[in-house]
Amino acid sequence: MARAYLVMADADRLSGGPDPMELNTVLQGADMQLRSTSATFAVYTSGETPTLHLPGGGIVVGDLHTRSGTAIRHASQLPAASSAAALRRHILKNCWGDYILILPEANDPRSVGITRSPSPACDLQCVYSLEEGTGFLTSHITLAERLGLCRRRVDFEQVAHQLAYPGLKTARTCLAGIRELLPGCTIHLHDGTARASLDWNPWEFVDAGSRPADPHEAASSVRDAIETVVHAWAEQDGSVLLELSGGLDSSIVGACLRESRARVTCLTLTTPVPGADEREYAGLVAGMLGVGLQAQELRYGDAPYRFPLPPDIVTPVIGPLQYAVDRTMQAIADRESVDSHFTGGGGDTVFGYLMNAAPAADAFLGAGLVAGIRAVRDISAFHQCTYWKAARLTLRKLRTQGEPYGIDRSFLPPRARVPEPEPHPWLSPPARFLPGDRQRVLELSATQFFRDSCPRALVRRLRMPLLSQPVVEACLRVPSWMWFHGGQNRAVARLGFAHALPPRILARKSKGTFTAYLGALYRRELAGMLAFLLHGQLEAHGLLDGDKLRALAKGEMPRGDNAFMRIFQLCALENWVRQQSPPGGPVHR
């Protein structure tokens, strides 16, 4: 097994848990070794998983770096702390990485806090089941299953929640009794109780007091953060597959790799239909790195709507496109013998790509009349609309906030009760907040789905530098209107890397998409997908509107530009649900 861990909480009180002999047999078979133990917990990790022992019985599972990018491999690199809470605060403020932090309380050996790295794309998953403070936390749910610590059952209430709020990440997974410790959160175990807290809050970084003075200061801060993270990871990995989309975000990651000693392989994807071919621009980045560009075509047969999923996937978001991309990337990584994947994932979010008037509204509210008028001009230039239309939309945004997240009722039964949204801990803004900041934090929370959609992360390190903690914090500090300075999107990132990118990439405002490919795939596979849904588990549990699906089969087109994407989304959920039967259980059609 690759990087993996298992934390047994109060194992001596587990009812129906494994006996010691069975525990050792299963864990040894999975290359899991005991790394730390106390009165409250036992920590097991795979041989490939780094650990750092801390004074007082604490342990870091995974990688930890200083803000300058230096790897922290010894406890002496951290200051002495008066309490577990103080050490946790220091690490969250002064360090970064993909890690799980386990800290017992010095004055109460039966109390322990387990914290997940704030990075939305943290390399280490953390799912758990705790009852009266007893249970497990793990990177791989299959480890807990093999030990008899849980039994795989679908939580159809949560499936209904995901159908209604597909962009809302929650701690509740679609497996009954299994929750996820979300980035920046801590689970506190004490005297048979479990309590979750938020110890890293994105709202702290959009505070007016932390804003850079001007775009140049902002650009320097963002550039330094990205370069630090990319260099640290590239040096650690040694060989990387750079996944190039041709857009600005992956190109920035590529520019930062130019100064590393890592062996870089560059790959871009094409399709049988126009719209996604970015070889011209991806080739500029590969040339800048002094390597050739590999291009791989995604065929229609590479993207089935039903396909096998790794059993450790607990969030059903992998559709045909994600499956095709993932398999292709894995195959090239295998062939080139690289250690990790590097992507520009998350750039739209961290670089403030808000497609409405919220940045201008933020400028009026947060910086005053002059800044607001300037921001309206920038927004009108970017969207190529009149100044007065941009001003009218800004005024509307100032008057009405709207819902933080919308409900998708398409293809749901007309009389179905839509569940109340389960709150994400990041989505509780302070008493006074800017509308654009709320949208940015909402979209940042949704990036926690990215790793869920990439099973290749279970095989190799999947590096998303733009979603690392230092980059996220640096970008949040930049006010939303500054990202559109001069009528450009991603203006601060462009300014920061103006010296490092080919001019043609620096000037780009758009890039290719897979929309035409997905549209063609939809037309080819619609009949099969509808039969898959109409005879599936979602329909059997009353979660779909069968009449609307049958209307599609008769040739009626769904309304909305992206309505066909909803069918792919439903198939992703159905495909996952059908594969959740326990070993020996029923196999659904």
Automatic annotation (TrEMBL):
A Pfam family of this chain: Asn_synthase
Any one annotated GO CC term: cytosol
Gene Ontology molecular function, alphabetical: asparagine synthase (glutamine-hydrolyzing) activity
Pathway info: Amino-acid biosynthesis; L-asparagine biosynthesis; L-asparagine from L-aspartate (L-Gln route): step 1/1
Enzyme Commission number(s) from the entry: 6.3.5.4
UniProt cross-references to InterPro entries, sorted A to Z: Asn_synthase, ASN_synthetase/amidase, Rossmann-like_a/b/a_fold
Enzyme class, first EC level, given as a word: ligase
PANTHER family from the UniProt entry: ASPARAGINE SYNTHETASE, ASPARAGINE SYNTHETASE (GLUTAMINE-HYDROLYZING)
Name of the featured protein: asparagine synthase (glutamine-hydrolyzing)
Organism: Xanthomonas boreopolis
